Each structure stands twice: as C-alpha cells, then as structure tokens.
Amino acid sequence: MSSRDLVLGRIRRALADVPRTEEPADVHVPRDYLSTHAPADATEMLAEHLADYRALVHRTDAAGLPGLVADLLAARGAKTVVVPPGLPPEWLAATGAARVADAAETTARELDAVDSVVTGCALAIAETGTIVLDGSPDQGRRRITLVPDHHICVVRVPGQVVDSVPQALPRLSPARPLTWISGPSATSDIELSRVEGVHGPRTLEVVLLRG
Length: 211
Fold this sequence. Notes:
It comes from Streptomyces johnsoniae. By secondary structure, the protein is α/β, with parallel strands linked by helices.
C-alpha cells in the first residue's frame, strides 16, 4: 500500500458517517478559541520581537520624529530617499536627502541606486514581531520597500499595534497587496550561515511613534 492509499483510506474512514449531501456550511463549527494571549503591553512585546529579528527599534513622539528620521538617514549616509505619495511631509522636514518619488516608471535598477525608503504601515503584530504593509498612500508600491537596502518604517503606537495574527486579519483587506515583514530580509544556507539583504532591505529600522 502506498502512502497515498494510506492517507486516502484514513480520510474515507473518518468520513464514513457523514451524509453525502452534507455541505460544510451545514455544520456549525465553534470559533470561540482565544484570538490573543493578552500580553500585558503589546507595544513592549512588539519591540522585543522586532529586536529578536534584528530590526533596529527606535521610539519618539510627533515632535521628535523629523529629527529622528533625519538622524537615521544621516547615520546611513543616505543622500536619496524614496517617498510614498501619502507620506506626511513633516516626517522628512529635517533631512536634506533628495526625495525620489514613488513613480510607476521607476525601474528596479533605479530603485537599487536609492539609499533609503521611509514608509508608514498598515499595522504591526506584537506576538510575531511582524510589520504589515498594504500599499496605502503612506506606504507606496510594494517594490519600493523591497529594492532599497535601508527601510525606515513608522508604526503609530498603540493604535496600529494588535496582539496577534487573528486580531490582524479582520483589519486587513485581502484585496490589497499585503507585505508581511518580520525583520530585515535574510536567508540561511545549508550550513545555517545567515545572509541578509537577499530579497529585501538589509537594514530595517522601526520607529514606534507615540500618540
């Protein structure tokens, strides 16, 4: 007997007492399981898990954000930065880096020559340390966060932080281009040698914006 026959046999035995006319919607399945483990402080859990993934975490308020973004770009020596169309202009008010618009005609080669990108986010998940982008105006096209080597992502806390993936899904639209980011881009070879920047930015900096 093959593995396929074994698996199909088990399925047939499990369904032996199910009427052939029965549809999945005919049977109510309770969905009363917990959607979160209710962390004491979701923002602190998010910061901890982001750091576990080697993202660089910063904290500030609205007044300090322009200066912090300028400092982060200067520390990278960034002379150019991609700007989504809906990014609040005050976020970049203190930097002298040249703005590169998120334009449809911009090629991947041109984006690769840009030093940094600054975006907002759709939400962040505390339990997994995940940032979710959905292509909204303050985030821009997916490719602008995948090609440049340095990504600064601003998360408004606590409003954009949810505890868990089950809490995140109802707040996201499956019709939008969702990008789920857990730390900077990285992969490991067969010897578990970590290589960063393979299919996304090598450096991810997350700014937790209070208020």
